[in-house]
């Protein structure tokens, strides 16, 4: 066992940290998608971190552990968490399924556009009646010659209003349940697609979240990912990526919040003492450290297992659960340590709790992660 990062990995981490710190001051309209920031992240190489350069000049071909470390740096640097989240949804739930399951022609056509950030993708699986349980998707795809006709509505699609492509999942054979679902790349300019207004939500505000409607959208068969019937497997693989890599961003955000707490506790005085000398405050910060380090090690283990191509369902679910729940607690603690200042926008620390609450829902809720863990423990 070796807990050390090599020099190349550390220098990539430092680069991500300083790049993200520089983006911290970039301002944009609240709730709007910051295209300039997106482009800067494209220039950094965010959207092609694990993609081989054979498929795109923006691909870095990093292994998953190094990818995780770079994402930690981006999260810690303080660039807008909403756009980092949007980038992770694009990269890990869209670019990676194309990279791992697309035909050679589709990979060559789309990966250069998507890894540079010139084009944006959105993952569309959730439906009104299929959130945690996606066994029965009401969206259907029926074959007509060389085309599929897609019909249905997706309820929560990150990047929906800015997407050039959707990775959408539809039922091709209802008799087979999970094995009757198929994954499609759907160009967003095809006739019959309508995107709802962006939802107003609690956090991650620059990431757009929309309903998407497919009304008899005619998609060529070359846009099928993998084979017909492999949709559920492809989605599960994309969640493996997302649950590791997206949540690495939040490890970085928690590290930043912890550092801010230490700095503030050592500076802020009540009476003649800094508040760090009050055990209630210092123990709260010690607990933040324990939760962060535990979640971080679970993430590294899950990513390491993924790189070994063994069944890592339990490790990934454990890591996702630990990170998102630690993120919520850390978001509360950073406000408590900063007192009233923490509650104010000008204190600069009240956004984490708003971003963190979403993290216990997307990529499978905390309850669903517990179900996955129980399943692997032989309890279900
Ligand atoms: C910010 C954000 C971004 C999102 N982005 C996307 C996206 O890009 N693409 C996409 O397709 N979806 C996206 N989603 C949707 C997300 O994946 C779903 O919200 C999530 O899967 C839960 O589904 P639901 O909201 O329908 O809740 P439900 O499934 O209705 O769950 C409601 C409650 O019941 C619990 N529950 C449900 N079933 C079980 C069970 N079997 N065992 C135990 N507890 C259970 C849940 O844990 C939860 O507490 C996003 C959601 C959010 C909040």
TrEMBL record:
InterPro entries: Acyl-CoA_Oxase/DH_mid-dom, Acyl-CoA_Oxase/DH_mid-dom_sf, AcylCo_DH-like_C, AcylCo_DH/oxidase_C, AcylCoA_DH/ox_N, AcylCoA_DH/ox_N_sf, AcylCoA_DH/oxidase_NM_dom_sf. It holds the Pfam family Acyl-CoA_dh_N. One of its GO terms (molecular function) is flavin adenine dinucleotide binding. Residues 123-217 form the Acyl-CoA oxidase/dehydrogenase middle domain. Residues 229-377 form the Acyl-CoA dehydrogenase/oxidase C-terminal domain. Keywords: FAD, Flavoprotein, Oxidoreductase. Its cofactor is FAD. Residues 29-118 form the Acyl-CoA dehydrogenase/oxidase N-terminal domain. Belongs to the acyl-CoA dehydrogenase family. This is Proline dehydrogenase. It comes from Pseudoalteromonas piscicida.
């Amino acid at each position: 066992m070796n807990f050390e990062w090599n020099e190349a990995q550390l220098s990539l981490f430092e680069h991500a940290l300083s790049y993200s710190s520089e983006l911290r001051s970039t301002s944009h309209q609240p709730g709007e998608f910051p295209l300039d920031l997106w482009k800067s992240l494209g220039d950094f190489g965010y959207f092609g971190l694990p993609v081989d350069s054979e498929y795109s000049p923006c691909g870095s071909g990093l292994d998953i552990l190094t990818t995780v470390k770079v994402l930690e740096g981006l999260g810690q640097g303080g660039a807008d968490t909403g756009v980092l989240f949007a980038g992770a949804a694009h990269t890990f739930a869209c670019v990676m399924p194309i990279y791992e399951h697309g035909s050679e022609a589709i990979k060559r056509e789309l990966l250069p556009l998507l890894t540079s950030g010139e084009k944006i993708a959105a993952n569309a699986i959730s439906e009104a009646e299929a959130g945690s349980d996606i066994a029965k998707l009401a969206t259907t795809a029926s074959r007509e010659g060389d085309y599929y006709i897609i019909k249905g509505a997706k309820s929560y699609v990150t990047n929906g209003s800015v997407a050039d492509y959707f990775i959408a999942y539809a039922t091709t054979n209802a008799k087979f349940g999970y094995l009757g679902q198929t994954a499609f790349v759907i160009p967003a300019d095809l006739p019959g697609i309508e995107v709802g207004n962006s939802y107003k939500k609690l956090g991650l505000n620059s990431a757009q979240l929309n309903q998407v409607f497919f009304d008899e959208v005619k998609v060529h068969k070359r846009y099928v990912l993998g084979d017909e019937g492999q949709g559920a497997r492809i989605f599960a693989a994309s969640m493996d990526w997302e649950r590791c890599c997206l949540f690495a961003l939040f490890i970085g955000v928690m590290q930043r919040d912890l550092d801010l707490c230490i700095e503030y506790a050592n500076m802020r005085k009540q009476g003649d003492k800094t508040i760090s000398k009050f055990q209630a405050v210092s123990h709260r910060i010690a607990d933040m450290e324990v939760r962060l380090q535990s979640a971080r090690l679970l993430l590294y283990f899950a990513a390491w297992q993924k790189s070994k191509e063994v069944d890592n369902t339990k490790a990934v679910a454990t890591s996702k659960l630990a990170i998102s729940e630690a993120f919520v607690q850390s978001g509360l603690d950073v406000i408590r340590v900063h007192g009233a200042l923490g509650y104010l926008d000008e204190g600069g620390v009240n956004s984490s709790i708003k971003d963190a609450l979403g993290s216990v829902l997307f990529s499978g809720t905390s309850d669903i992660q517990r179900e996955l863990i129980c399943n692997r423990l032989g309890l279900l």
